[in-house]
Every structure is written in C-alpha cells, then in structure tokens.
Design a protein that fits this description.
heterotrimer, A alpha/beta (443), B mainly alpha (280), C mainly alpha (300), A: 443 residues, alpha/beta, D-Maltodextrin-Binding Protein, domain 2, 2 domains, 7-stranded mixed β-sheet, 5-stranded mixed β-sheet, C: mainly alpha, two-stranded antiparallel sheet, 13 helices, flat
Chain lengths: 443, 280, 300
C-alpha cells in the first residue's frame, strides 16, 4: 500500500516541475501590449521589419481586446507587467502614474522631437501628468456619421447629400425604413453594451453645445438641454420604428455588420469604423462619411476628435532603452504613414496626412477636422460613482424604464457628490479642470 | 411502472421529439453554420443545409487560431485535473465515511459553506495566492486551481456512494490485517467505479469548459491558452466577433470532444449517479 | 478518550484528507477571508486601498440596483426550481418507463448540459434575434405573435428569455439526478403496491414521490445554490440589460469588480464594493439554505 501512495506522490511530484516550464530568456525581449485588434496585421508587418533592422530586439505583441485594463492590472499584480503597454487617452493615466506603473519619457523627448507633432497633442491629464510626459499619442479618431449610399439611392435620396441636421436625419431614416418594408431600416444602434450611448447621445449633445462637465463651474450637467434633446432624438427614431429591431440584443460589432450588409442605412461611430468595414468585414458596402448632423437651428458646438494610440513604458522594465526604441517606433513618421495608408487612424504628425496617404475609402472625409475639436479632459473617469453611469442611464431612458428629467438630475447629483468626495480626499484638484473661457465652438 | 398506458403513447412521443429538436437545434445550427460561407450566413442564417459544405473553415480556424496548441493544453489540463480530483476527493470521502476523527464535522461544514461563494468573487484572491506560489503562467497553476475548485461537489457525490458500500467488507479486510490505506485502495475504490465515472464526466465538463480562471492565469503567455480562452481570443482577435462560420467551427472544435466523451461514457453516467444514491 | 488521543489514533484519516485540506485552505478559505476584508475597503484595484468601515454595507442597503438584481435572482431561482425541476422529474419518470427509444431521448436531453454556455450564448443570441431570428419566425408561423419581438432586448421579456435558455441547458442534469433517484427505489415496493391494487397514478403518488424525497431535497438544494450563483448565461446573453432588467447579483458584482468598458476601456473598478455585493449574496444563500434544511427536517 505504501508503495502505491508513494507512487502516486511521485507521479504528482514529477508532473509539477514538468508543467512549470521556466521561460527561456530571450536576449532582449520586449513585451508589447495593445487592445487594438483592427490594425493587428499592419503592426505585425511593421514589427517584423523592425526586428530585421534590429536583430538584438525581439518584440512580442500581446492583444487583449477584451478587458484590457483588468488584464493589465492582473499582470501588475503578478509582477510580470509588459515592458511597453498601451495607455488610455483619458484621466485613468493619472491613476496608473500614481500607482507607479509608468516611467516618464522626459529624458528622451527633446524639444525638437516634440516639434514634429501637431501642436497641443501632449495634453495635461492624458499624456502629461504633473509636468512629466508618459505617452505620445500617435493617432486621431473623429466622430462621424456613416451612411449607406446604395440604400440612399434605392429609396431616391441623393447619395451625395447626407442629412445635415436632426430633422433631416429623422426624415431620411423614416423614408428609408418605409421603403425597406422590413428588409432594411434607416438607422442602427447596437446597444447591448450601453457604452454606444456615448456615441449616439453624448457626441450628438456636443454638436448641440453640450458637455458633461461644466468647465466654468466645475459641476456635472447632464441634466441640460443638449443632452435632453439628443436623447429625445434617439427616442424619436425608436418610436418611428426607424431603428433596426433588436438594438438591445446586438452589440456594436453586429450593428456595424448590419450596416455593411445593407440592412441599415446610417450609423454613428468613430473613424475607426473604416478599418472595420473594409479589413474586418471584407465588405464592399458603398458607404459615405459625413459630419454629425447638427440641431435644426444650426451648430452649437464642434464634434469631438480623440487622440489615441499612445504607449507607455513600464517602470519595472529591465530594458528601458529598448522599450523606448519601440515607443519611438510606434510614434514615428514611418509607422504612422503605414497606419494612415491602411486607413487605421489619422496621424498626429500633420505632414503624414497627405491626400495620397489618405487613400483608403472614407479616410479623407474622416481626416477633415474642420468641425472637430479636442475637448479638454474632465474628471469623470477618476470618480468613484455610486450607481449607474451616464451610458446605463441613457439605456434606461431610451427603453422607457427611467423618466428623463429625474434620471439625469439624479445622475448629476451622484456625479457631483462623487466629485466633491474625490476633492476632499485629495484625489482631484478641481482647478486643474476649470476653463473659465470655455467655448464649444472654438478649437 | 405502467403509468404510460394511461397516456396514449402518440402525444407523449410528440412532446419528447419536440424537446429533442429544441435540444439539438442550436448544436445543429452551430455545425451547419460552421460549414457555410460568410455571405451565405448573412443571406439566410436560419437555413440548416449549407449549399456546399466548406470543410476548409475548420482548417482555417485550426491554423489561424492556433487551435492545435489550445487543444493540447486543454487535454493536458483536463486529464491532470481529472486524475487529481478523483485521487484527492476519493481519499477524503473515504476518510469521512469510514472513520470518525475530531474535526470531521468542521471539515464537512466548511466544505458546504464554500458552495455559497460564487467563483467570480474569489478569482482575484485565488490569483494572488497563485502568484505567491509561483503558479501563474504555467499549466500546473491552472490545474491545481481547477482541482481546488471542484473538490466540494466531488467529495459530496463520492462520499454518498461510499456510504452505500457495506461496512462489513471493511471489517472483513480489517480482520485480514489491511490498514486504512489498503482498505481504501483494494476494497472500496474498486467497488466505486460507477461514481468515479460520474465524477469523471462532471469534472471533465467543468475543466474543459472553464473560462475565467484559465483566462486570468494565461494572459501573459498566449501559448498556454485553453480552447475556450483561445476561442474567445480568436473571436475578438480575428474578425470582430462576427465571422460566424469560423467562430462556429471553433465552437464545434471545442464542443465535440465533450459530446463524444459523454456519448462514450453515458452508460456509466446515469447508472453512476443512480448508484450514488445521492443520500444525505 | 481525549480529543488528542482520538486525533492521534486517526492520524491515517488526516493523511488521507491532507491533499484536499491543503487545496481547500489555500484556494477556498483564504479567498473568503480576503473577500471579507476587502468589503471594508475602498479600492480601485490600482492605487492604495483605503479602510472605510461599514460604508460599503450601508451603500449596499440603499443601492436600488442591488435590490433589483437580487429580485431578479430570486425570480430566476424560483422559476428554475418550479419549472425546470418539475419538467426534469416528468422527463425522468417518462424515460424510466419501458418506452422505446428512451436511451436515445436520455442522451439527447442531456446533450445541452455538456456544452459551454459562453459558446452557446452566441448561438442563442442569433436564434432570438428580432430581425432574422428563427424563434420569431416559428412563433409567427404558429400565429402566436403578430410582429417580431426583441426577446432578449425588451425589459419585460429579457429575464424570462434567459431563464428559458438556462432551463434548456440544465434540464438534462436534473433529469439524470431524478433518474438516479428513481432507479434506487426498490422494485418490491411497486410489487407490494400492485398487490394492494394501486393504479399507476397511485403508485406515483404513494411510492415514487415519497421515495424520491431525500434525493429531491438534495437536487433542490444544489439547484437553488447554483441558481443564486448564475453568471455566465446572463453575462453572455444580455449583459444584465436593458438597464438592469435582467441583472443578477453575480453579474452586478462583476461589473464593479473589474474595470468597465468604453472608449479607451476605462471606468475605474470598485473592488471593495464588489466584495460587499459578494458578501451580500453569501448571506442570502446561507439564509435560504438554512431555511431549506430546517424545512427538510420538519418534513421528515
């Protein structure tokens, strides 16, 4: 009997080390984390080229398209953080700096280096924390309306005249839906994951002059006309039956697929959609890109543009110099040129955005920044909010589960309470977010 | 029982066949979609017969999604979990049913109480522990954590069965000079095959389909992913989750082994659970 | 005999339990204490933790969404208990009789159990789609509905649709449990009943059901505990929406425990509060199990 117990113990003991393979240490391996999957092929190609030019560096790209922030946190918990990792373009970066995750890039960033980028892309709270630079945004995304030209043509609308204002949006959507007779619809939202309301409501509120955070008073103001009107617009579209049925059980991917398979004529989204339509869905949908429709009485605010694609260096990396080579690479002119040509983003080096580089379908329209502005950061992401956030509240309002005025007022109350608490705890200095002469129409 | 005679058999069969269709439909849909082309799916997603079966989808999924590696990992993990669960839980169940030692009640109650804790809640602390034991990013870590997670139900089932094995057998062996370990190995365990088969199937299902834990444990080492983790990564990494044919091919690849195992072992299964008596 | 002596005498029993105990303490007991501790803290998972006493618990009590998700969980528990277990019992009784093809039906009914809910959730979202889904088509053809409905997307139907799919998935395992119970009923009891002139209904009422009671209690307990912890299926199919209409406790906890999604994927996690939600669920399950055990005992 003892033999058997000893035997089984032996089996287990021999199994354990065999399965715990210790990793082979490559000479200089740089682990590179990103949440972007739509540009994977381009990145792979460019990294391969880089490795050929730098045989001493081996880049391992890890994509976590789902739950990126959780994965990153777990990697830090495990004390095996990546050497280079994508950092968000919002105030969460401040928390990561506070936690000591990031290494300042100041030693490498000379004034000349900085000068090659568009002015003003190194923004406080987003790339710069307490005077130190932690990331270089390399791409820009814009908020746009995508419309399906073949459906427009089919119902007798001019495919070169997308809706300019909310009334036209509503009319066109109705007209298309009516002509579609259940085969196609005017508009599509994939609201299973409620964050799409930040596109369909918040962006629309912005062109109506609204911002979630009042930069003058330092209070949240979702309970204001622009937001209510943007919400009413969606509710109206829904009531008209102009939205592709099933908005609550479909995520944004499926909504975009419906758009590409000619089942819906209009969708609001970021310029990242281009890469999705063309590379991911391999669709040959005949689409056009337009600026977001504005309120009937005219534009009250500029549409948002977003800085994106910035990478930071782990404070724990053993190879800071090699890591910097990678960060420099993904923010280089050559890299951006390839990305822009593939239609992945608009570059933050202005000279890259030439007509011949912006050759992918829709890119030129997406790169048109005439009616866009980089909105200043607000502290919302840093707050410990009790209860549902704006996107969830929108879902409740649109589905008739919440009364609009009451729900928005309640949201503001909760946000402002969380804000005062964060200020009291010393987590946020309100004066850093105050802009006395803020004007949503000015760049 | 002749209760059936009261019914006419015909409507009963209708009901049974109807429920069979409901049970099978999603699986058939999955297989049929895995053999279609993308345009075919968007055209008529409900059609169950593909125009011409595209077996190439499986090849594409297998190679593009690294399913070979994932399959191997899943097999190693599931196999090891299976053996370890059967070994550890049968020993514990044996001790609990055959001897009376101080602290037995405490162990039993503690085991039951942990049933109340959702696994999602303990993921983070389990991760911390695994880190301090240097078990992260290794198959061994996943195996040990999964074994820990399937202890309670297995012990419960096995001890219920052990109680149905007459104590006389033990006593006879004792008189013959067998110690506790020998009685466990030579007397009780050979008689417990049905329940071990049952536990094996349940454990296999759990380990094979496990998602959250392998996901958390393998995030820095994609080569250690299991099939479900790989499938989700494939879904998000490849085509924004909507290349239905490839996705369904991946789903089929990960589903077929469990189905096959079940079909193979099912005769033991019902019998095994029946034999446990599931009492107390 | 003193406890120590007894313990010493049973050293071999402890040895047999050792692997289980080690795993249990490391991977079960420690995490539970960790959770309890965390529920008194405020923590975003990144920066320093902060002790805040009972604040999370006070917040839990006044959080309407927690109560809503608890209510939904209860509905889920009760619906699964009543509908699924009676169907499973019915199926078991039928398939335990001398019916042609019963083994085939048993296998088919069990098949959904072995599938992964994360995988099948994707399939079901397609089936229930209001635009091109098969479910609507069939109901329409049968004349049960006059227009397509968004079964997973309407606040009034989302939870019940999820419950339907959960029953699809879990019916088989409970059927097998009941079958097991039926097969362990000694045959002579039926023979005795027949001699007493009992018809099949009477046999069912007076022999089968009473004899099934012990196993039924266990099945009920496992089902209730499992239902309270439901997560995958809700997370995959509705994500708790629309606006928490199908939210259950574990999914709600999960939303706070991990960072949210969005542009740039970043709403700060509130892990302390998530732990508190988990503790709340723990207490609820414990109370229910206690009541159940008491009732089971009284019934005897």
């Amino acid at each position: 009997m003892k033999k058997i117990i000893a035997g089984s113990l032996l089996i287990v003991l021999t199994m354990v080390p065999a399965l715990m393979k210790s990793p082979l240490v490559a000479q200089t391996k740089i682990i590179f984390w990103t949440w972007n999957r739509h540009d994977m092929e381009v990145k792979k190609r460019l990294f391969k080229k880089f490795e050929q030019e730098h045989p001493d560096i081996d880049v391992e790209m890890v994509i976590h398209a789902d739950r990126y922030q959780d994965m990153l946190k777990l990697a830090w918990d495990a004390e095996t953080p990546p050497d280079v990792f994508q950092i968000p373009e919002n105030t969460l970066v401040a928390l990561q700096v506070e936690a000591g995750w990031l290494m300042p890039l100041d030693q490498w960033i000379t004034p000349e280096f900085k000068a090659q980028y568009m002015p003003g892309i190194f923004r406080n709270h987003v790339s710069v924390i307490k005077g130190h630079i932690y990331g270089i945004p390399s791409g820009i995304f814009t908020a746009k309306l995508f419309y399906n030209k073949s459906l427009f043509r089919k119902v007798g609308l001019d495919p070169e005249k997308p809706p300019r204002n909310w009334r036209e949006l509503k009319e066109y959507a109705q007209k298309i839906t009516k002509a579609g007779k259940g085969r196609f619809y005017g508009f599509v939202i994939g609201a299973k994951d409620p964050w799409v309301y930040s596109m369909n409501v918040e962006w629309m509120a912005m062109v109506a002059g609204g911002t979630a955070f009042n930069y003058k008073t330092g209070k949240f103001q979702y309970n204001s006309e622009p937001f209510k009107r943007a919400l009413s617009l969606i509710i109206g579209l829904k009531r008209d039956g102009s939205i592709l049925p099933g908005m609550n059980s479909m995520d944004d991917d499926r909504a975009r697929l419906a758009f590409c398979s000619n089942k819906a004529a209009m969708i609001i989204g970021g310029s990242w959609n281009l890469g999705v339509f063309i590379d991911q869905f391999h669709s040959n949908v005949d689409f056009g890109v337009a600026d977001l429709p504005v309120p009937d009485e005219g534009r009250k605010g500029l549409a948002p543009a977003f800085l994106s694609s910035q990478w930071g260096i782990s404070s724990r990396t053993k190879h800071p110099q090699e890591a910097w080579e990678i960060v420099k690479l993904v923010a280089s002119k050559e890299w951006m040129t390839e990305m822009v040509r593939a239609g992945k983003y608009i570059a933050t080096i202005a000279s890259v955005n030439t007509p011949e580089n912006l050759k992918t379908k829709g890119m030129r329209e997406c790169a048109d920044l005439t009616y866009h502005k980089f909105y200043p950061p607000d502290p919302e992401e840093m707050l410990r909010l009790e209860g549902p956030d704006f996107n969830n509240v929108c879902a409740g309002i649109v589905n008739g589960q919440l009364e609009m005025n009451k729900a928005l007022a309640d949201l503001d109350k909760r946000l402002n309470k969380a804000l005062s608490r964060a200020i009291a705890e010393g987590k946020i200095r309100l004066e850093e977010f105050i802009i006395p002469n803020f004007n949503p129409m000015k760049k | 029982m002749n209760i059936m005679r009261r019914f006419t058999r015909f409507p009963l069969y209708i009901v049974l066949i109807l429920w069979s269709i409901i049970c099978l439909y999603p699986l058939v849909w999955m297989i049929s979609t895995s053999l279609k082309t993308m345009p075919e799916v968007t055209e008529d997603p409900a059609a169950l017969i593909p125009e011409t079966p595209h077996w190439a989808n499986y090849l594409e999924t297998w190679t593009k999604g690294n399913f070979g590696t994932y399959f191997k990992n899943s097999l190693i993990i599931t196999g090891a979990v299976l053996l370890l669960v059967l070994w550890t839980t049968s020993m514990t169940a044996f001790a609990i049913t055959r001897t009376d030692f101080p602290g037995k009640r405490l162990i039993l109650y503690a085991l039951v109480v942990t049933l109340f804790i959702p696994a999602e809640a303990t993921l983070v602390p389990v991760f911390h522990i695994a880190k301090s034991l240097h078990l992260l990013n290794s198959l061994a870590g996943i195996i040990i954590a999964l074994v820990a997670g399937s202890q309670v139900v297995s012990i419960y089932l096995i001890q219920a069965y052990f109680r149905t094995i007459p104590l006389d057998l033990d006593d006879a062996a004792k008189i013959d000079g067998c110690n506790l370990f020998q009685r466990y190995w030579y007397v009780v365990l050979p008689l417990a095959r049905p329940v071990l088969a049952t536990v094996a199937i349940l454990t296999f299902m759990g380990a094979w389909n496990a998602y959250m834990l392998p996901l958390a444990f393998t995030m820095a080492r994609p080569t250690l992913r299991t099939l479900p983790v790989g499938l989700v990564a494939f879904q998000s990494g490849f085509a924004f989750s909507v290349n239905w044919p490839l996705l369904c091919a991946g789903a089929a690849i990960s589903t077929i082994p469990v189905v096959a195992l079940y079909v193979f072992l099912q005769r033991y299964f019902v019998g095994g659970i029946a034999a446990t008596g599931l009492k107390e | 005999m003193s406890v120590f002596k007894q313990a010493k005498k049973n050293w071999d029993s402890y040895l047999l339990c050792t692997p289980t105990l080690i795993l249990f303490i490391v991977f079960m007991v420690y995490p539970v204490f960790y959770l309890v501790r965390l529920s008194f803290y405020q923590w975003d998972g990144i920066t320093q933790m902060k002790f805040i006493g009972l604040e999370n618990y006070a917040r839990l009590l006044r959080d309407p969404i927690w109560w809503k998700s608890l209510k939904n969980t209860m509905i889920y528990v009760v619906a699964k208990l009543v509908i699924e277990l009676s169907l499973a019992l019915g199926a078991a009784v039928v398939l335990n009789s001398k019916l042609k093809g019963k083994n085939l039906f048993r296998s088919i009914f069990f098949l959904p159990v072995v599938t992964s809910m994360a995988v099948m959730g994707i399939v079901f979202v397609g089936i229930f789609s209001p635009f091109e889904g098969v479910f609507n088509l069939i109901l329409m053809k049968l004349g049960l509905i006059s227009q397509f409905r968004d079964w997973l997307g309407e606040p009034s139907t989302a939870l019940y649709t999820v419950i339907g799919v959960a029953i699809w998935h879990d019916l088989g395992i409970n059927m097998v449990f009941f079958l097991a119970g039926l097969q362990s009923i000694p045959k002579y009891l039926y023979d005795a009943a027949k001699i007493d002139g009992a018809g099949s209904w009477q046999q069912l009422l007076h022999v089968t059901l009473p004899m099934l009671k012990p196993i039924a209690l266990i099945i009920v307990m496992l089902s209730v505990i499992g239902s309270f912890k439901v997560f995958d299926i809700v997370n995959v199919m509705t994500n708790g929406g629309p606006y928490y209409a199908s939210e259950v406790v574990t999914d709600y906890m999960f939303k706070y425990g991990f960072a949210g999604r969005g542009l740039g994927a970043s709403v700060v996690a509130q892990q302390g509060y998530a732990a508190t939600i988990g503790m709340g669920l723990f207490v609820v399950i414990a109370i229910f199990t206690f009541i159940q055990l008491k009732m089971g005992r009284i019934g005897r």
